[in-house]
Amino acid sequence: MKVVIVGGTGFIGRNIAPVLAGGGNTVTILTRSPRATSAVVGGDVHVRKWNPLNGQTSGNPFQGQDAVINLAGASIAERRWTPARKAVLRVSRIETTRMLVTALSHLVAPVRPKILINASGIGFYGLETADAVDEMQGPGTGFLADLCVEWEREAFRAAAYGIRTVCLRISMVLGKDGGAMQKMLLPFKLFLGGPVGQGTQPVSWIHVEDLGRLIAAILRQPSFNGAINAASPHPVTMKEFCRQLGRALGRPSWLPVPAWALQLGLGELSTLLTRGQLVNPFRARQLGFAFTYPDLESALSAILGKHS
Protein backbone atom coordinates (compact mmCIF):
# COMPACT_ATOMS: atom_id res chain seq x y z
CA MET A 1 0.00 0.00 0.00
CA LYS A 2 1.22 3.51 -0.82
CA VAL A 3 0.83 5.74 2.24
CA VAL A 4 1.42 9.48 2.60
CA ILE A 5 1.88 11.01 6.07
CA VAL A 6 1.29 14.72 6.63
CA GLY A 7 2.84 15.94 9.87
CA GLY A 8 5.13 12.93 10.03
CA THR A 9 8.05 14.72 11.71
CA GLY A 10 6.49 14.81 15.18
CA PHE A 11 6.75 12.19 17.90
CA ILE A 12 3.92 10.03 16.53
CA GLY A 13 4.95 10.31 12.88
CA ARG A 14 8.60 9.48 13.59
CA ASN A 15 7.49 6.29 15.32
CA ILE A 16 4.81 5.03 12.96
CA ALA A 17 6.45 5.81 9.59
CA PRO A 18 9.26 3.23 9.92
CA VAL A 19 6.79 0.65 11.27
CA LEU A 20 4.45 1.07 8.32
CA ALA A 21 7.39 0.98 5.91
CA GLY A 22 8.68 -2.19 7.57
CA GLY A 23 5.25 -3.75 7.08
CA GLY A 24 5.63 -3.66 3.33
CA ASN A 25 4.02 -0.27 2.67
CA THR A 26 5.62 2.48 0.60
CA VAL A 27 5.63 5.46 2.97
CA THR A 28 6.16 9.11 2.04
CA ILE A 29 6.29 11.95 4.55
CA LEU A 30 5.23 15.41 3.37
CA THR A 31 7.18 18.08 5.22
CA ARG A 32 8.41 21.65 5.09
CA SER A 33 12.00 20.45 5.78
CA PRO A 34 12.85 17.40 3.64
CA ARG A 35 16.55 17.28 4.45
CA ALA A 36 16.10 17.36 8.23
CA THR A 37 13.27 14.84 8.04
CA SER A 38 15.29 12.36 5.96
CA ALA A 39 17.99 12.37 8.62
CA VAL A 40 15.45 11.44 11.31
CA VAL A 41 13.28 8.78 9.66
CA GLY A 42 15.90 6.80 7.73
CA GLY A 43 16.16 5.44 4.21
CA ASP A 44 13.05 3.25 4.14
CA VAL A 45 10.76 6.29 4.25
CA HIS A 46 10.48 8.69 1.33
CA VAL A 47 10.33 12.43 1.96
CA ARG A 48 8.73 15.15 -0.16
CA LYS A 49 8.40 18.89 0.39
CA TRP A 50 4.86 20.19 0.95
CA ASN A 51 3.80 23.34 2.74
CA PRO A 52 0.35 24.34 1.48
CA LEU A 53 -0.07 27.13 4.04
CA ASN A 54 2.82 28.98 2.37
CA GLY A 55 1.86 28.01 -1.16
CA GLN A 56 4.85 25.67 -1.45
CA THR A 57 3.41 22.78 -3.43
CA SER A 58 4.63 20.72 -6.35
CA GLY A 59 1.79 19.00 -8.14
CA ASN A 60 -0.73 17.01 -6.13
CA PRO A 61 1.26 14.88 -3.66
CA PHE A 62 -1.71 12.56 -3.04
CA GLN A 63 -2.17 11.44 -6.63
CA GLY A 64 -1.70 7.71 -7.00
CA GLN A 65 -1.52 7.09 -3.26
CA ASP A 66 -3.70 4.54 -1.47
CA ALA A 67 -3.94 6.19 1.93
CA VAL A 68 -3.30 9.53 3.63
CA ILE A 69 -2.50 9.91 7.34
CA ASN A 70 -2.83 13.48 8.58
CA LEU A 71 -1.03 14.14 11.87
CA ALA A 72 -0.39 17.84 11.26
CA GLY A 73 -0.85 20.25 14.13
CA ALA A 74 1.22 22.48 16.41
CA SER A 75 1.84 21.07 19.89
CA ILE A 76 -1.11 21.57 22.22
CA ALA A 77 1.03 21.54 25.38
CA GLU A 78 4.05 23.51 24.21
CA ARG A 79 3.09 26.94 25.60
CA ARG A 80 0.31 29.03 27.17
CA TRP A 81 -2.95 29.28 25.25
CA THR A 82 -2.80 32.97 24.46
CA PRO A 83 -5.16 34.19 21.72
CA ALA A 84 -2.22 34.11 19.30
CA ARG A 85 -1.31 30.56 20.29
CA LYS A 86 -4.90 29.40 19.93
CA ALA A 87 -4.89 30.82 16.40
CA VAL A 88 -1.75 28.82 15.61
CA LEU A 89 -3.34 25.64 16.98
CA ARG A 90 -6.44 26.18 14.86
CA VAL A 91 -4.67 27.06 11.63
CA SER A 92 -2.17 24.20 11.89
CA ARG A 93 -5.05 21.73 12.23
CA ILE A 94 -8.15 23.09 10.58
CA GLU A 95 -6.62 25.00 7.67
CA THR A 96 -4.12 22.24 6.87
CA THR A 97 -6.87 19.61 6.93
CA ARG A 98 -9.11 21.79 4.76
CA MET A 99 -6.37 22.21 2.16
CA LEU A 100 -5.56 18.51 2.29
CA VAL A 101 -9.17 17.48 1.64
CA THR A 102 -9.44 20.08 -1.12
CA ALA A 103 -6.38 18.55 -2.77
CA LEU A 104 -8.01 15.13 -2.52
CA SER A 105 -11.21 16.48 -4.06
CA HIS A 106 -9.31 17.43 -7.20
CA LEU A 107 -8.42 13.80 -7.86
CA VAL A 108 -10.58 11.12 -9.41
CA ALA A 109 -10.50 7.35 -9.15
CA PRO A 110 -8.30 5.39 -9.57
CA VAL A 111 -5.56 7.90 -8.63
CA ARG A 112 -7.47 9.27 -5.61
CA PRO A 113 -6.59 7.76 -2.19
CA LYS A 114 -9.16 5.41 -0.75
CA ILE A 115 -8.48 6.13 2.94
CA LEU A 116 -7.94 9.23 5.07
CA ILE A 117 -6.86 8.74 8.68
CA ASN A 118 -7.01 12.14 10.36
CA ALA A 119 -5.73 12.92 13.83
CA SER A 120 -8.09 14.35 16.43
CA GLY A 121 -7.97 14.22 20.21
CA ILE A 122 -9.91 13.07 23.24
CA GLY A 123 -10.26 16.77 23.98
CA PHE A 124 -13.33 16.32 21.76
CA TYR A 125 -15.16 15.15 24.89
CA GLY A 126 -14.21 18.23 26.91
CA LEU A 127 -11.65 18.42 29.69
CA GLU A 128 -13.67 16.81 32.42
CA THR A 129 -15.76 13.64 32.18
CA ALA A 130 -17.25 12.07 35.29
CA ASP A 131 -18.11 8.81 33.51
CA ALA A 132 -16.37 6.80 30.82
CA VAL A 133 -17.04 8.08 27.31
CA ASP A 134 -16.95 6.21 24.02
CA GLU A 135 -17.42 7.22 20.39
CA MET A 136 -21.20 7.50 20.81
CA GLN A 137 -20.72 10.47 23.16
CA GLY A 138 -21.24 13.93 21.72
CA PRO A 139 -18.69 16.75 22.03
CA GLY A 140 -17.94 18.51 25.28
CA THR A 141 -17.41 22.22 25.78
CA GLY A 142 -14.37 24.46 25.84
CA PHE A 143 -11.55 25.40 23.52
CA LEU A 144 -10.22 21.89 22.85
CA ALA A 145 -13.66 20.41 22.25
CA ASP A 146 -14.52 23.17 19.79
CA LEU A 147 -11.15 22.74 18.08
CA CYS A 148 -11.64 18.99 17.65
CA VAL A 149 -15.19 19.42 16.35
CA GLU A 150 -14.01 21.82 13.63
CA TRP A 151 -10.98 19.66 12.87
CA GLU A 152 -13.09 16.53 12.40
CA ARG A 153 -15.67 18.43 10.35
CA GLU A 154 -12.99 19.35 7.82
CA ALA A 155 -11.67 15.78 7.69
CA PHE A 156 -15.08 14.18 7.22
CA ARG A 157 -15.61 16.27 4.09
CA ALA A 158 -13.44 13.65 2.39
CA ALA A 159 -16.23 11.08 2.75
CA ALA A 160 -18.25 13.03 0.15
CA TYR A 161 -15.59 12.04 -2.42
CA GLY A 162 -15.85 8.33 -1.66
CA ILE A 163 -12.84 8.28 0.69
CA ARG A 164 -13.13 6.11 3.80
CA THR A 165 -12.47 8.59 6.59
CA VAL A 166 -11.36 7.82 10.15
CA CYS A 167 -10.80 10.46 12.82
CA LEU A 168 -8.52 9.12 15.55
CA ARG A 169 -9.28 10.72 18.90
CA ILE A 170 -5.82 10.29 20.36
CA SER A 171 -5.15 10.22 24.10
CA MET A 172 -1.80 10.92 25.79
CA VAL A 173 0.80 8.94 23.84
CA LEU A 174 3.59 7.22 25.76
CA GLY A 175 6.92 6.26 24.23
CA LYS A 176 10.67 6.34 24.70
CA ASP A 177 11.79 9.30 22.63
CA GLY A 178 9.27 12.07 23.04
CA GLY A 179 5.73 12.98 23.92
CA ALA A 180 4.47 13.31 27.47
CA MET A 181 6.90 10.75 28.90
CA GLN A 182 9.93 12.78 27.95
CA LYS A 183 8.64 15.74 29.99
CA MET A 184 7.75 13.61 33.00
CA LEU A 185 10.98 11.70 33.44
CA LEU A 186 13.31 14.49 34.62
CA PRO A 187 11.42 15.56 37.77
CA PHE A 188 11.01 11.92 38.82
CA LYS A 189 14.70 11.21 38.27
CA LEU A 190 15.46 14.24 40.45
CA PHE A 191 13.16 12.86 43.20
CA LEU A 192 10.69 15.68 42.51
CA GLY A 193 7.91 13.68 40.89
CA GLY A 194 4.34 13.56 42.08
CA PRO A 195 0.70 13.90 41.10
CA VAL A 196 -0.76 17.08 39.67
CA GLY A 197 -3.55 18.76 41.61
CA GLN A 198 -5.72 16.44 43.69
CA GLY A 199 -4.55 13.41 41.69
CA THR A 200 -8.06 12.03 41.30
CA GLN A 201 -8.49 13.18 37.69
CA PRO A 202 -8.49 10.33 35.11
CA VAL A 203 -5.58 9.88 32.70
CA SER A 204 -6.33 8.18 29.39
CA TRP A 205 -3.23 7.07 27.52
CA ILE A 206 -1.93 4.77 24.76
CA HIS A 207 1.50 3.27 24.06
CA VAL A 208 2.91 4.63 20.81
CA GLU A 209 3.40 1.09 19.47
CA ASP A 210 -0.27 0.32 20.00
CA LEU A 211 -1.17 3.56 18.24
CA GLY A 212 0.96 2.50 15.27
CA ARG A 213 -0.63 -0.95 15.25
CA LEU A 214 -4.09 0.60 15.41
CA ILE A 215 -3.30 2.80 12.41
CA ALA A 216 -2.01 -0.26 10.52
CA ALA A 217 -5.22 -2.12 11.37
CA ILE A 218 -7.33 0.79 10.10
CA LEU A 219 -5.41 0.76 6.81
CA ARG A 220 -6.09 -2.97 6.37
CA GLN A 221 -9.67 -3.27 7.57
CA PRO A 222 -12.50 -1.46 5.76
CA SER A 223 -14.75 -1.93 8.81
CA PHE A 224 -12.86 0.88 10.59
CA ASN A 225 -14.71 4.07 9.78
CA GLY A 226 -15.74 7.31 11.48
CA ALA A 227 -14.48 8.31 14.93
CA ILE A 228 -12.14 5.90 16.75
CA ASN A 229 -10.81 6.44 20.29
CA ALA A 230 -7.07 5.76 20.42
CA ALA A 231 -6.75 5.02 24.14
CA SER A 232 -5.81 2.06 26.29
CA PRO A 233 -8.73 0.10 27.79
CA HIS A 234 -7.36 0.79 31.29
CA PRO A 235 -7.10 4.49 32.15
CA VAL A 236 -5.85 5.38 35.63
CA THR A 237 -6.02 8.33 37.99
CA MET A 238 -3.23 10.90 37.92
CA LYS A 239 -2.12 9.71 41.36
CA GLU A 240 -1.91 6.09 40.18
CA PHE A 241 -0.11 7.10 36.99
CA CYS A 242 2.56 8.93 38.98
CA ARG A 243 2.81 6.11 41.53
CA GLN A 244 3.47 3.54 38.81
CA LEU A 245 5.91 5.81 36.98
CA GLY A 246 7.84 6.41 40.20
CA ARG A 247 7.94 2.69 40.95
CA ALA A 248 9.14 1.90 37.41
CA LEU A 249 11.97 4.41 37.85
CA GLY A 250 12.78 3.42 41.41
CA ARG A 251 11.79 6.89 42.59
CA PRO A 252 9.17 8.17 45.05
CA SER A 253 6.02 9.92 43.94
CA TRP A 254 5.53 12.20 46.89
CA LEU A 255 5.65 15.84 45.76
CA PRO A 256 2.25 16.97 44.49
CA VAL A 257 2.09 19.95 42.16
CA PRO A 258 -0.70 22.28 43.35
CA ALA A 259 -3.30 23.25 40.77
CA TRP A 260 -2.95 26.95 41.62
CA ALA A 261 0.75 26.88 40.74
CA LEU A 262 0.01 25.37 37.35
CA GLN A 263 -2.73 27.90 36.74
CA LEU A 264 -0.30 30.70 37.60
CA GLY A 265 2.40 29.37 35.30
CA LEU A 266 0.39 27.93 32.41
CA GLY A 267 -2.94 29.69 32.46
CA GLU A 268 -5.75 27.87 30.64
CA LEU A 269 -3.28 25.23 29.42
CA SER A 270 -3.08 23.93 33.01
CA THR A 271 -6.55 22.40 32.62
CA LEU A 272 -4.96 19.68 30.48
CA LEU A 273 -3.28 18.40 33.64
CA THR A 274 -5.73 19.28 36.38
CA ARG A 275 -8.76 17.76 34.63
CA GLY A 276 -9.09 14.56 32.67
CA GLN A 277 -11.14 12.26 30.50
CA LEU A 278 -12.10 8.65 31.13
CA VAL A 279 -12.06 7.31 27.58
CA ASN A 280 -13.23 3.87 26.45
CA PRO A 281 -11.79 2.50 23.15
CA PHE A 282 -15.12 0.84 22.37
CA ARG A 283 -14.94 0.88 18.57
CA ALA A 284 -11.37 -0.44 18.35
CA ARG A 285 -12.17 -3.37 20.64
CA GLN A 286 -15.51 -3.99 18.94
CA LEU A 287 -13.66 -4.33 15.63
CA GLY A 288 -11.21 -6.85 17.08
CA PHE A 289 -8.16 -4.73 17.87
CA ALA A 290 -6.03 -6.25 20.65
CA PHE A 291 -3.76 -3.94 22.64
CA THR A 292 -0.20 -5.16 23.20
CA TYR A 293 0.03 -2.83 26.21
CA PRO A 294 -3.48 -2.64 27.68
CA ASP A 295 -2.33 -1.68 31.20
CA LEU A 296 0.06 0.98 32.43
CA GLU A 297 2.45 -1.44 34.12
CA SER A 298 3.21 -3.30 30.88
CA ALA A 299 3.51 -0.03 28.94
CA LEU A 300 5.97 1.52 31.38
CA SER A 301 7.97 -1.70 31.54
CA ALA A 302 8.36 -1.67 27.75
CA ILE A 303 9.30 2.03 27.68
CA LEU A 304 11.66 2.13 30.65
CA GLY A 305 13.15 -1.35 30.35
CA LYS A 306 15.54 -2.24 33.16
CA HIS A 307 14.15 0.54 35.38
CA SER A 308 10.82 -1.23 35.80
Explained architecture:
The protein has 308 residues and is of the alpha/beta class. The protein is built from 11 helices and 11 strands. It starts with a strand and ends with a helix. The mean pLDDT is 87.
Q: Taking Cα atoms only, what radius of gyration do you get, to the nearest Å?
A: 19 Å
- Largest sheet at a glance? 7 strands, parallel
Distance between the termini: 37 Å
Q: What are the segments in which pLDDT stays under 50 over at least 5 consecutive residues?
A: none
Q: Overall pLDDT, averaged?
A: 87
Which structural class do the helices and strands define? alpha/beta
Helicity level, as a percent range? Answer: 25-40%
Q: Give me the strand/helix succession.
A: EHEHEEHEHEEHEEHEEHHHHH
Strand order of the largest sheet: 3-2-1-4-5-6-10
Strand fraction equals 15-25%
Number of discrete helical segments = 11
Shape: globular
Question: How many strand segments?
Answer: 11
